[in-house]
Design brief:
Helix content is 46%, strand content 21%. It is an alpha+beta fold.
């Protein structure tokens, strides 16, 4: 089997299963009734085992098999749920993840898997089999053909052929969009085997496990099960498009048997559907067959769990979604972006033409392009829960490491973000969670002395605010010591001499300064002054902003504000001199015309009074260092980000437009003012102003 074709799919599906395993482990540790989470863990481990065996990653399959054995002891009550066992199960999940990554990359077996297996033996008082010891010390991953599925293969077919009676032929057609078709075909055979004795498989199971898996295959078995039950069993494997079931009555009695030598010769030369010659296996294969029998007994238990879970999800629902590489969506997005630019140019060209039919056709094309754009943008949106679900395990491990009790709450997992934004936001959130646990939340005895619950509360939430998504990390810890921050800021010259207090904005500027830290010692968790700095740097590259609010003794909240998408945005177009600029409408509150004389000065700074609100005034001409222009009317754009607002003065506002954001390469000083560039409908280039940098 060409494993490289399916390695990435194997990794992706295994990661999904590992995420579910970790979630169930956390649920089990938090005191839930053990049956449901143990069954969920069992299902995830069993699925990874099946995929690994089919892909030929035998070491991972055997490790998962040993983990199933331990879980079976827990499920049956033979193994008590202790703290040591929970730590071992978490370590096993980590080792399984390492094994998945290394197996797909054809790397040597993970040392973590070996250590975890030793812990299994210490807990159960047993020892690994000799065959397994050989496998886990080997640097190679053996192919799954060593583990013949009971009920299939030559020996099984020969044994089945000895009996008499009617047979049932099940013809299965896989969906054309099936992922890992070899795995799905293998699972279909396993599901049918649970209902009867496999007589034949066309093509054989070995061929089903190959890279060139046919879309259609046939399984013949002896069973008392009715057609609907067989069809349901086959469809429960997933990605099955069609199933037909045919009952065949036994053939008339055969002619007298030929001499053994002639019969043997016929079996050598004639393909047989009902009988296959049985040969003696060498000692190594015999040991593998013995292990396969043990493997099958554990699969029978896990198959019951799988069947129960899969029946809860309708087949149509399971086959309605297709995985697709993000690069293909990126290509589609780039193409629709170019189409948006062409649409704008066409609108500009026909604007003055007296051709109603042309305007009508352009209007229809504009609508269709808009619908296509909206669909592609929506297809890129994914729930933040895909990233948030990784963090409970991180919080649990870090809290144990630091000796703290933490109640971790996730809110708003259903909020959606563009995939490209979501992929980048994991690292900043990790920094914030680590800071909250290390610096914010106190130890249980300290909290108790302060009249707080022994268990600290840490909340990670996501919410939608107009065209932005707000991600917040809040804790009920001790808050940030403004006095210590101010002392350190004065020491290194971040604030002016004589400053006696830091508000939230000044506090944010200080703690986000590269290398700023008030920690007395450096640990492997924090103390080097890179956490908040790294968060702000990453968020700014995503077109977002970071804000902080803290209160002594009550806790701290850090808020990340992000655009839903970075690809196509609605913008307000402005002109300064001969240059064109784009201001994202998400950050535009309102616009107005004002004579220069209406702008006054307060303490030497230009300000604008707008409905009893005093706003600082920024002149884009001065910001980008263009020569001074003439007098006359000026346009003022009130820009905002979060709670901060200002009046931005430009020469002229020229309209609104959907713009395609292109990456921007710095070519001169001051490019931090711009988040990208775009091509306007008339073909002119324009810089996209980063409102956050102005405020």
């Amino acid at each position: 089997m060409d494993k490289s074709r399916y390695a990435e799919l194997f990794r992706t599906e295994s990661r999904d299963q590992l995420s579910a395993i970790n979630a169930a482990l956390l649920e089990l540790e938090q005191g839930a009734a053990p049956r449901a989470p143990v069954d969920a863990i069992f299902r995830g481990v069993h699925t990874i085992k099946g995929m690994s065996a089919t892909m030929g990653y035998s070491a991972v399959a055997e490790f998962a098999h040993e983990l199933e054995s331990l879980l079976d002891k827990v499920r049956s009550g033979d193994q008590a749920l202790t703290t040591e066992l929970m730590d071992t199960l978490f370590a096993a999940a980590d080792a399984l993840e390492d094994g998945v990554e290394q197996a797909a990359e054809a790397a040597p077996l993970s040392a973590a898997m070996v250590r975890t297996l030793d812990r299994f033996q210490e807990l159960t008082g047993g020892r690994a089999t000799a065959e397994f010891r050989v496998v886990r010390k080997s640097d190679a991953f053996r192919m799954t053909s060593e583990y013949e599925v009971p009920g299939t293969g030559a020996a099984a077919e020969g044994a089945a052929a000895e009996g008499a009676g009617a047979t049932t032929v099940v013809r299965v057609t896989q969906a054309s969009s099936a992922l890992l078709p070899g795995v799905r075909a293998f699972m279909v055979v396993q599901k049918l085997r649970a209902l009867g004795a496999i007589v034949a498989c066309d093509p054989p199971v070995e061929a089903l496990q190959a890279a060139s898996v046919p879309q259609r295959f046939t399984v013949t078995l002896r069973t008392d099960a009715e057609g609907p039950a067989l069809e349901q069993a086959a469809r429960s494997a997933g990605d099955v498009a069609e199933v037909t079931v045919e009952r065949r009555e036994p053939a008339p009695p055969a002619a007298p048997a030929a001499p053994e030598g002639a019969a043997r010769e016929r079996r050598r030369s004639t393909p047989s559907r009902g009988a296959v010659q049985t040969i003696s296996a060498p000692p190594f294969n015999r040991r593998a067959a013995d292990h396969g029998a043990q493997f099958a007994r554990r699969e029978a238990d896990a198959d019951d769990l799988l069947t129960t879970a899969e029946r809860a999800v309708p087949t149509a629902q399971r086959t309605r979604h297709v995985r697709i590489e993000l690069s293909r969506l990126d290509t589609l997005l780039n193409l629709i972006g170019e189409l948006v630019i062409v649409r704008g140019r066409l609108q500009a060209l026909v604007r003055g033409l007296p051709e109603p039919a042309l305007h009508e056709a352009l209007g229809e094309a504009t609508r269709l392009i808009g619908d296509l754009q909206a669909e592609i943008m929506t297809s890129r949106l994914v729930p933040v829960g895909q990233v948030f679900d990784r963090f409970p395990r991180l919080v649990r491990d870090l809290a144990r490491q630091l000796g703290k009790d933490v109640q971790f709450v996730i809110e708003g997992k259903e909020i959606e973000l563009d995939r490209s934004v979501l992929d980048e936001i994991g690292e900043p959130v990790v920094h914030l969670l680590r800071n909250a646990i290390d610096h914010g939340l106190e130890r249980p005895e300290v909290r108790e002395a302060a009249g707080k619950p022994r268990m600290g509360r840490l909340v990670l939430s996501a919410s939608r605010d107009r065209s932005a998504v707000v991600i917040s990390v809040r804790d009920d810890g001790k808050g940030i010591d403004r006095t210590r921050v101010l002392a350190r800021a004065l020491e290194i010259g971040l604030v002016e001499e004589g400053t006696t207090r830091l508000d939230d904005e000044a506090l944010m500027r200080c703690i986000a300064h590269p290398g700023f830290s008030t920690a007395e010692q450096v640990t492997d968790v924090s103390g080097r002054g890179v956490g908040i700095d790294a968060v702000q740097a990453k968020v700014r590259t995503l077109g977002g902003a970071v804000a902080i609010a803290t209160e002594a003794g009550q806790g701290t909240a850090v808020q990340i504000r992000l655009p839903v998408t970075l690809a196509i945005v609605r913008a307000l177009l402005a002109r300064v001199g001969d240059e064109r600029y784009a201001l994202p409408l998400a950050h535009v509150r309102e616009t107005m015309e004002r004579a220069p004389a209406t702008i006054t000065q307060v303490q030497g700074r230009d300000v604008l009074v707008l409905r009893d609100e005093v706003l600082p005034v920024l002149r884009l001409r001065e910001v980008v260092q263009l020569p001074a222009g003439g007098g006359g009317l000026e346009e003022i754009v009130v820009i905002e980000r979060g709670d901060r607002r200002a009046g931005l003065v430009v020469d002229e506002l020229t309209g609104q437009e959907d713009i395609v954001v292109k990456s921007f390469d710095a070519v001169r000083d001051g490019t931090a003012l711009f988040s990208g560039a775009t091509i306007l409908a008339d073909g002119a280039p324009a810089l996209i102003v980063d409102v956050g940098s102005l405020l």
